[in-house]
Amino acid sequence: MSDKEPVKSIITPTRTEYTYTPGPSAQRSLRALARGKLVGEICPSCNQVYYPPSGACARCGVATRDEVEVADKGTVTTYAIVRVPSENIDLELPYCTAHILLDGADIPFFGLIQECEWDAVRIGMRVEAVWKPESEWGLNAENIRYFRPTGEPDVPFEQFKEHL
Amino acid sequence: MADELLSAPHVLEYDYRRSLGEVLSRFFTGLRDRKILGVKTNAGRVLVPPSEYDPESGDATSDDWVEVGPGGVVKSWAWVNEPLGRHLLDHPFAFALIQLDGADTALTHAVDAGSEASMRTGMRVTARFADDTIGAIGDIVAFVPEEGS
Lengths: 164, 149
What we know:
heterodimer, A: 164 residues, mainly beta, CATH 2.40.50, 2 domains, 5-stranded antiparallel beta sheet, 3-stranded antiparallel beta sheet, 1 helix, 9 strands, 6% helix, globular, B: 149 residues
Protein backbone atom coordinates (compact mmCIF):
# COMPACT_ATOMS: atom_id res chain seq x y z
CA MET A 1 0.00 0.00 0.00
CA SER A 2 0.96 3.59 -0.46
CA ASP A 3 2.67 5.41 2.38
CA LYS A 4 0.67 8.49 1.37
CA GLU A 5 -2.81 9.28 2.60
CA PRO A 6 -5.48 7.15 0.95
CA VAL A 7 -7.50 8.74 -1.84
CA LYS A 8 -10.78 9.72 -0.19
CA SER A 9 -12.51 11.66 -2.95
CA ILE A 10 -12.44 12.27 -6.66
CA ILE A 11 -13.49 15.25 -8.75
CA THR A 12 -16.14 14.38 -11.29
CA PRO A 13 -16.60 17.22 -13.76
CA THR A 14 -19.78 17.61 -15.77
CA ARG A 15 -20.01 20.02 -18.64
CA THR A 16 -22.58 20.68 -21.32
CA GLU A 17 -22.21 23.27 -24.05
CA TYR A 18 -25.29 24.81 -25.57
CA THR A 19 -25.91 27.42 -28.18
CA TYR A 20 -28.73 29.42 -26.65
CA THR A 21 -31.17 31.01 -29.05
CA PRO A 22 -33.73 33.16 -27.24
CA GLY A 23 -37.30 33.03 -28.47
CA PRO A 24 -38.94 36.10 -30.05
CA SER A 25 -40.10 37.56 -26.72
CA ALA A 26 -36.72 37.17 -25.08
CA GLN A 27 -35.04 38.62 -28.19
CA ARG A 28 -37.20 41.74 -28.06
CA SER A 29 -36.61 42.05 -24.34
CA LEU A 30 -32.84 41.69 -24.71
CA ARG A 31 -32.75 44.35 -27.41
CA ALA A 32 -34.70 46.67 -25.10
CA LEU A 33 -32.32 45.85 -22.25
CA ALA A 34 -29.42 46.89 -24.47
CA ARG A 35 -31.16 50.32 -24.61
CA GLY A 36 -31.56 50.39 -20.82
CA LYS A 37 -35.23 49.42 -20.78
CA LEU A 38 -36.92 46.53 -19.00
CA VAL A 39 -39.64 45.39 -21.38
CA GLY A 40 -41.94 42.58 -20.37
CA GLU A 41 -45.11 41.19 -21.89
CA ILE A 42 -48.69 41.10 -20.68
CA CYS A 43 -51.09 38.19 -20.77
CA PRO A 44 -54.17 39.11 -22.87
CA SER A 45 -56.30 36.84 -20.71
CA CYS A 46 -55.34 37.54 -17.07
CA ASN A 47 -53.29 40.77 -17.47
CA GLN A 48 -50.27 39.34 -15.64
CA VAL A 49 -47.08 41.14 -16.66
CA TYR A 50 -44.08 38.89 -17.18
CA TYR A 51 -40.51 40.10 -16.89
CA PRO A 52 -38.45 38.54 -18.28
CA PRO A 53 -41.01 37.49 -20.89
CA SER A 54 -41.11 33.90 -22.08
CA GLY A 55 -43.75 34.43 -24.77
CA ALA A 56 -46.57 32.69 -22.93
CA CYS A 57 -48.57 33.09 -19.76
CA ALA A 58 -47.68 30.37 -17.27
CA ARG A 59 -51.12 30.68 -15.69
CA CYS A 60 -53.37 30.74 -18.77
CA GLY A 61 -51.16 29.02 -21.33
CA VAL A 62 -51.87 31.67 -23.95
CA ALA A 63 -49.32 33.64 -25.95
CA THR A 64 -48.29 37.03 -24.62
CA ARG A 65 -47.79 39.70 -27.19
CA ASP A 66 -48.18 43.29 -26.03
CA GLU A 67 -45.06 44.78 -24.53
CA VAL A 68 -45.08 46.59 -21.20
CA GLU A 69 -42.19 48.48 -19.69
CA VAL A 70 -41.53 47.73 -16.05
CA ALA A 71 -39.51 49.79 -13.57
CA ASP A 72 -35.89 49.16 -12.64
CA LYS A 73 -36.83 49.19 -8.99
CA GLY A 74 -38.96 46.92 -6.91
CA THR A 75 -39.51 44.92 -3.75
CA VAL A 76 -37.58 41.95 -2.37
CA THR A 77 -39.99 39.00 -2.15
CA THR A 78 -37.43 36.49 -0.94
CA TYR A 79 -33.66 36.19 -0.74
CA ALA A 80 -30.78 33.84 -0.09
CA ILE A 81 -27.44 34.36 1.60
CA VAL A 82 -24.69 32.71 -0.43
CA ARG A 83 -21.77 31.41 1.60
CA VAL A 84 -20.35 28.95 -0.92
CA PRO A 85 -17.77 30.22 -3.40
CA SER A 86 -18.06 29.56 -7.15
CA GLU A 87 -15.08 29.71 -9.42
CA ASN A 88 -16.77 32.07 -11.88
CA ILE A 89 -18.34 34.44 -9.34
CA ASP A 90 -15.99 37.09 -8.06
CA LEU A 91 -17.94 38.39 -5.07
CA GLU A 92 -16.98 38.69 -1.45
CA LEU A 93 -18.72 36.08 0.69
CA PRO A 94 -21.30 36.04 2.05
CA TYR A 95 -23.48 37.88 -0.41
CA CYS A 96 -27.21 38.14 -0.99
CA THR A 97 -29.28 37.22 -4.03
CA ALA A 98 -32.95 38.02 -4.13
CA HIS A 99 -36.19 37.71 -5.98
CA ILE A 100 -37.29 41.23 -6.76
CA LEU A 101 -40.82 42.12 -7.80
CA LEU A 102 -40.16 44.98 -10.20
CA ASP A 103 -42.77 47.74 -10.09
CA GLY A 104 -45.23 46.99 -12.87
CA ALA A 105 -44.40 43.26 -13.08
CA ASP A 106 -46.36 40.38 -11.62
CA ILE A 107 -43.54 37.85 -11.25
CA PRO A 108 -40.25 38.40 -9.45
CA PHE A 109 -36.93 38.90 -11.19
CA PHE A 110 -33.61 37.52 -9.97
CA GLY A 111 -31.00 39.97 -8.76
CA LEU A 112 -27.92 40.50 -6.63
CA ILE A 113 -28.17 42.86 -3.65
CA GLN A 114 -25.17 45.08 -2.89
CA GLU A 115 -24.37 48.35 -1.09
CA CYS A 116 -26.01 46.81 1.93
CA GLU A 117 -24.88 44.41 4.65
CA TRP A 118 -26.02 40.91 3.75
CA ASP A 119 -27.81 40.50 7.07
CA ALA A 120 -29.73 43.76 6.62
CA VAL A 121 -31.66 42.42 3.61
CA ARG A 122 -35.30 41.63 4.37
CA ILE A 123 -38.46 40.56 2.65
CA GLY A 124 -40.39 43.68 1.63
CA MET A 125 -37.25 45.83 1.26
CA ARG A 126 -37.30 48.34 -1.62
CA VAL A 127 -34.37 48.12 -4.05
CA GLU A 128 -33.29 49.77 -7.29
CA ALA A 129 -31.07 48.70 -10.15
CA VAL A 130 -27.52 50.00 -10.46
CA TRP A 131 -26.63 49.95 -14.13
CA LYS A 132 -23.29 49.70 -15.82
CA PRO A 133 -22.22 52.86 -17.67
CA GLU A 134 -24.30 53.16 -20.86
CA SER A 135 -21.21 52.78 -23.03
CA GLU A 136 -20.82 49.23 -21.67
CA TRP A 137 -24.39 48.07 -22.25
CA GLY A 138 -24.78 44.89 -24.26
CA LEU A 139 -27.41 42.30 -25.10
CA ASN A 140 -27.33 40.65 -21.70
CA ALA A 141 -28.58 40.85 -18.13
CA GLU A 142 -25.18 42.05 -16.92
CA ASN A 143 -26.19 45.59 -17.89
CA ILE A 144 -27.64 45.70 -14.39
CA ARG A 145 -24.69 45.27 -12.04
CA TYR A 146 -26.82 44.74 -8.96
CA PHE A 147 -29.70 46.17 -6.91
CA ARG A 148 -29.29 48.39 -3.87
CA PRO A 149 -31.68 49.60 -1.17
CA THR A 150 -33.64 52.73 -2.04
CA GLY A 151 -34.31 53.70 1.58
CA GLU A 152 -38.07 53.76 0.97
CA PRO A 153 -40.28 52.17 3.64
CA ASP A 154 -40.70 48.39 3.40
CA VAL A 155 -43.73 47.07 1.56
CA PRO A 156 -46.08 44.98 3.74
CA PHE A 157 -46.14 41.30 2.78
CA GLU A 158 -49.91 41.47 2.15
CA GLN A 159 -49.27 43.75 -0.82
CA PHE A 160 -47.07 41.28 -2.74
CA LYS A 161 -48.09 37.89 -1.39
CA GLU A 162 -49.77 37.02 -4.70
CA HIS A 163 -46.52 37.60 -6.59
CA LEU A 164 -44.04 35.22 -5.01
CA MET B 1 -38.30 40.51 -37.47
CA ALA B 2 -35.72 42.60 -39.23
CA ASP B 3 -33.10 42.11 -36.55
CA GLU B 4 -30.61 39.32 -36.86
CA LEU B 5 -31.45 36.28 -34.74
CA LEU B 6 -29.56 36.34 -31.47
CA SER B 7 -27.68 33.38 -30.15
CA ALA B 8 -24.91 32.90 -27.63
CA PRO B 9 -22.83 30.07 -26.19
CA HIS B 10 -24.11 28.76 -22.88
CA VAL B 11 -21.83 26.49 -20.87
CA LEU B 12 -23.12 24.60 -17.87
CA GLU B 13 -20.27 23.16 -15.86
CA TYR B 14 -19.93 21.69 -12.38
CA ASP B 15 -17.05 19.98 -10.66
CA TYR B 16 -18.38 17.61 -8.04
CA ARG B 17 -16.13 16.30 -5.29
CA ARG B 18 -17.36 12.82 -4.68
CA SER B 19 -16.55 11.06 -1.41
CA LEU B 20 -15.50 7.55 -2.25
CA GLY B 21 -16.23 5.45 0.80
CA GLU B 22 -13.91 2.69 1.96
CA VAL B 23 -14.17 0.38 -1.03
CA LEU B 24 -13.68 2.85 -3.86
CA SER B 25 -11.08 4.70 -1.78
CA ARG B 26 -9.02 1.52 -1.84
CA PHE B 27 -9.54 1.12 -5.60
CA PHE B 28 -8.43 4.68 -6.40
CA THR B 29 -5.53 4.54 -3.95
CA GLY B 30 -4.50 1.39 -5.81
CA LEU B 31 -4.62 3.23 -9.14
CA ARG B 32 -2.34 5.90 -7.71
CA ASP B 33 0.08 3.06 -6.91
CA ARG B 34 -0.35 1.74 -10.49
CA LYS B 35 -2.29 -1.28 -9.34
CA ILE B 36 -5.79 -2.34 -10.36
CA LEU B 37 -7.55 -3.86 -7.37
CA GLY B 38 -10.65 -6.00 -7.16
CA VAL B 39 -12.67 -7.13 -4.19
CA LYS B 40 -13.95 -10.68 -3.63
CA THR B 41 -17.55 -11.51 -2.96
CA ASN B 42 -18.43 -14.18 -0.42
CA ALA B 43 -18.95 -16.53 -3.36
CA GLY B 44 -15.38 -15.87 -4.45
CA ARG B 45 -16.08 -13.73 -7.52
CA VAL B 46 -13.72 -10.81 -8.07
CA LEU B 47 -15.45 -7.48 -8.77
CA VAL B 48 -13.55 -4.84 -10.77
CA PRO B 49 -14.42 -2.07 -10.30
CA PRO B 50 -15.07 -3.10 -6.71
CA SER B 51 -18.33 -2.39 -4.95
CA GLU B 52 -19.56 -2.49 -1.40
CA TYR B 53 -22.19 -5.07 -2.22
CA ASP B 54 -22.30 -8.23 -4.31
CA PRO B 55 -24.76 -7.42 -7.11
CA GLU B 56 -25.82 -11.07 -7.27
CA SER B 57 -26.68 -11.65 -3.61
CA GLY B 58 -26.92 -8.17 -2.17
CA ASP B 59 -24.51 -9.22 0.60
CA ALA B 60 -21.62 -7.01 1.60
CA THR B 61 -18.43 -7.85 -0.26
CA SER B 62 -15.51 -9.30 1.69
CA ASP B 63 -12.36 -7.54 2.82
CA ASP B 64 -10.37 -9.83 0.57
CA TRP B 65 -8.62 -7.79 -2.13
CA VAL B 66 -6.69 -9.00 -5.14
CA GLU B 67 -4.61 -7.26 -7.76
CA VAL B 68 -5.87 -7.89 -11.31
CA GLY B 69 -4.64 -7.10 -14.82
CA PRO B 70 -2.99 -5.07 -16.16
CA GLY B 71 -4.02 -7.19 -19.15
CA GLY B 72 -7.55 -8.19 -19.99
CA VAL B 73 -10.12 -9.01 -22.65
CA VAL B 74 -12.50 -6.65 -24.46
CA LYS B 75 -16.01 -7.97 -23.86
CA SER B 76 -17.84 -5.25 -25.79
CA TRP B 77 -16.99 -1.88 -27.31
CA ALA B 78 -18.23 1.22 -29.10
CA TRP B 79 -16.09 3.34 -31.37
CA VAL B 80 -15.93 7.09 -30.71
CA ASN B 81 -15.08 8.94 -33.91
CA GLU B 82 -15.26 12.44 -32.50
CA PRO B 83 -13.95 12.63 -28.94
CA LEU B 84 -15.32 15.42 -26.76
CA GLY B 85 -13.18 17.69 -24.64
CA ARG B 86 -13.77 15.70 -21.49
CA HIS B 87 -12.75 12.36 -22.94
CA LEU B 88 -9.43 10.92 -21.84
CA LEU B 89 -8.12 10.82 -25.40
CA ASP B 90 -8.16 13.57 -28.02
CA HIS B 91 -8.23 11.20 -31.00
CA PRO B 92 -10.73 8.47 -32.00
CA PHE B 93 -10.89 5.59 -29.54
CA ALA B 94 -13.23 2.87 -28.29
CA PHE B 95 -15.16 2.81 -25.07
CA ALA B 96 -14.96 -0.79 -23.98
CA LEU B 97 -15.97 -3.20 -21.26
CA ILE B 98 -12.71 -4.86 -20.27
CA GLN B 99 -12.54 -7.96 -18.12
CA LEU B 100 -9.12 -7.83 -16.51
CA ASP B 101 -7.14 -11.00 -15.89
CA GLY B 102 -8.24 -12.30 -12.52
CA ALA B 103 -11.53 -10.41 -12.51
CA ASP B 104 -15.05 -11.76 -13.02
CA THR B 105 -16.64 -8.47 -14.04
CA ALA B 106 -15.77 -5.85 -16.63
CA LEU B 107 -14.47 -2.30 -16.20
CA THR B 108 -15.49 0.49 -18.58
CA HIS B 109 -12.50 2.31 -20.03
CA ALA B 110 -11.02 3.61 -23.27
CA VAL B 111 -9.09 1.49 -25.75
CA ASP B 112 -6.53 3.39 -27.81
CA ALA B 113 -6.50 1.12 -30.81
CA GLY B 114 -5.69 3.57 -33.60
CA SER B 115 -8.58 2.61 -35.81
CA GLU B 116 -11.97 0.99 -35.57
CA ALA B 117 -10.68 -1.80 -37.83
CA SER B 118 -8.23 -2.78 -35.08
CA MET B 119 -11.02 -3.37 -32.59
CA ARG B 120 -12.68 -6.69 -32.00
CA THR B 121 -14.58 -8.31 -29.18
CA GLY B 122 -12.30 -10.76 -27.43
CA MET B 123 -9.09 -8.87 -28.21
CA ARG B 124 -6.39 -8.65 -25.52
CA VAL B 125 -5.53 -5.23 -24.16
CA THR B 126 -3.34 -3.91 -21.38
CA ALA B 127 -3.45 -0.81 -19.19
CA ARG B 128 -1.25 2.17 -20.01
CA PHE B 129 -0.72 4.26 -16.90
CA ALA B 130 -0.12 8.01 -16.82
CA ASP B 131 3.33 9.34 -15.98
CA ASP B 132 1.88 11.01 -12.90
CA THR B 133 -0.87 9.22 -11.04
CA ILE B 134 -3.20 11.08 -8.68
CA GLY B 135 -5.82 8.54 -7.64
CA ALA B 136 -8.37 8.95 -10.43
CA ILE B 137 -9.70 6.82 -13.27
CA GLY B 138 -7.50 8.85 -15.65
CA ASP B 139 -4.44 7.31 -13.98
CA ILE B 140 -5.03 4.68 -16.62
CA VAL B 141 -4.68 6.82 -19.74
CA ALA B 142 -6.19 4.04 -21.86
CA PHE B 143 -5.94 0.38 -22.58
CA VAL B 144 -3.85 -0.55 -25.62
CA PRO B 145 -3.81 -3.72 -27.71
CA GLU B 146 -1.47 -6.22 -26.11
CA GLU B 147 1.68 -6.79 -28.15
CA GLY B 148 1.78 -10.04 -30.05
CA SER B 149 -1.96 -10.62 -29.74
